[in-house]
């Protein structure tokens, strides 16, 4: 019978206890003592690719031991773009001084005394940053209510361009409130802003965004074309004496430009035409009814507000009251009189 054998399917760098059993037709007997043997080391298997936590200018690299080390790991070697950048027993390494959002090829080699094995190659990126600079948008006024906005892509994007945002403010709010008028991931380089107010100064700025944040441009200025005013208010006529009025009014709800003059009409006749928003009318008759209307003008034209009516205050009657009597009998007298002159 055979007195030698080959043990197959063993694992590298593993301790085994081997016993021998001898058998006859009557039965089997196992050896009293086991033979302790150890398999030698081999090169590692299943070496894992390195991973990284990305920052804009450096990578915090890390890796795990091979799933099947096949021995004692004596050294790791990390390659970046084919060049070894680290050798040692550690499982972390910081790759410094690299460019923002740049791809690099990494490969890890793990070694035992018996040999070395490479991981799969992996591509890792540094993190994104906001674009370095974005030029102010170019504005073209199309009419009294529309502005056409154009812009250029940032020269240094520092990542993947994600979206553009347009902010707008106007002089009616003292440029203190900025509203988002456009926010799109469609990376067009122009946009038409509709439904603006005529004769209004606008500040418009642009933001370009990546996964690392947004950069906002300087603001550009545009003034929409003027138009005739809208919402001209009714004047307020107050009489503090029997022969005069104090008349005042406010700006139109929508000036649609720079108001050049206000015209005040009393009883259909232009009483005052100036930039003032008040007027004093005197020499009127007590308790007399008058109509008032305000006209507001820009360089593009004029608009009239609603008509209001008001009376001057009452005053004491003036003139003699003539009384006439007629005797109708011993007990009756008929009286008649005429109204005062005023």
UniProtKB/TrEMBL annotation:
<feature type="domain" description="Fibronectin type-III">
    <location>
        <begin position="130"/>
        <end position="231"/>
    </location>
</feature>
<protein>
    <submittedName>
        <fullName>USH2A protein</fullName>
    </submittedName>
</protein>
<dbReference type="InterPro" id="IPR003961">
    <property type="entry name" value="FN3_dom"/>
</dbReference>
<feature type="domain" description="Fibronectin type-III">
    <location>
        <begin position="43"/>
        <end position="129"/>
    </location>
</feature>
<feature type="domain" description="Fibronectin type-III">
    <location>
        <begin position="232"/>
        <end position="319"/>
    </location>
</feature>
<dbReference type="InterPro" id="IPR036116">
    <property type="entry name" value="FN3_sf"/>
</dbReference>
<dbReference type="Pfam" id="PF00041">
    <property type="entry name" value="fn3"/>
</dbReference>
<dbReference type="InterPro" id="IPR013783">
    <property type="entry name" value="Ig-like_fold"/>
</dbReference>
<dbReference type="InterPro" id="IPR050713">
    <property type="entry name" value="RTP_Phos/Ushers"/>
</dbReference>
């Amino acid at each position: 019978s055979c007195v030698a054998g080959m043990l197959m399917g063993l694992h590298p760098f593993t301790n085994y206890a081997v016993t021998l059993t001898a058998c006859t037709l009557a039965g089997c007997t196992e050896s009293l003592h086991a033979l302790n043997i150890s398999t030698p080391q081999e090169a590692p298997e299943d070496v894992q690719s390195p991973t990284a936590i990305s920052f804009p200018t450096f990578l915090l690299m890390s890796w795990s031991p091979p799933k099947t080390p096949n021995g004692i790991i004596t050294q790791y070697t990390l390659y970046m773009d084919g060049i070894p950048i680290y050798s040692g027993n550690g499982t972390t390494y910081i790759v410094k001084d690299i460019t923002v959002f740049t791809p690099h090829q990494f490969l890890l080699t793990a070694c035992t005394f018996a040999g070395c094995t490479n991981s799969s190659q992996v591509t890792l990126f540094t993190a994104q940053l906001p674009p370095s600079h974005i030029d102010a948008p170019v504005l073209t006024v199309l009419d009294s209510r529309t502005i056409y906005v154009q812009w250029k892509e940032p020269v240094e994007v520092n990542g993947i361009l994600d979206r553009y945002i347009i902010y707008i403010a106007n002089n009616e709010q003292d440029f203190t409130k900025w509203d988002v008028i456009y926010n799109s991931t469609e990376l067009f380089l122009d946009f038409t802003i509709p439904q603006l107010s005529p004769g209004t100064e606008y500040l418009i700025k642009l933001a370009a965004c990546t996964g690392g944040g947004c950069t906002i441009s300087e603001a550009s200025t545009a003034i929409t074309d003027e138009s005739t005013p809208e919402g001209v208010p009714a004047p307020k006529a107050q009489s503090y004496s029997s022969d005069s009025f104090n008349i005042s009014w406010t700006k139109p709800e929508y000036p649609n430009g720079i108001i050049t003059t206000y015209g005040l009409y009393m009883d259909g006749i232009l009483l005052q035409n100036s930039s003032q928003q008040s007027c004093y009318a005197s020499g009127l008759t007590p308790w007399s009814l008058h109509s008032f209307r305000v006209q507001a003008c820009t360089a593009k034209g004029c608009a009239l507000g609603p008509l209001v009516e008001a009376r001057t205050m009452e005053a004491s009657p003036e003139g003699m009251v003539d009384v006439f009597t007629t005797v109708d009998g011993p007990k009756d007298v008929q009286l008649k009189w005429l109204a005062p002159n005023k």
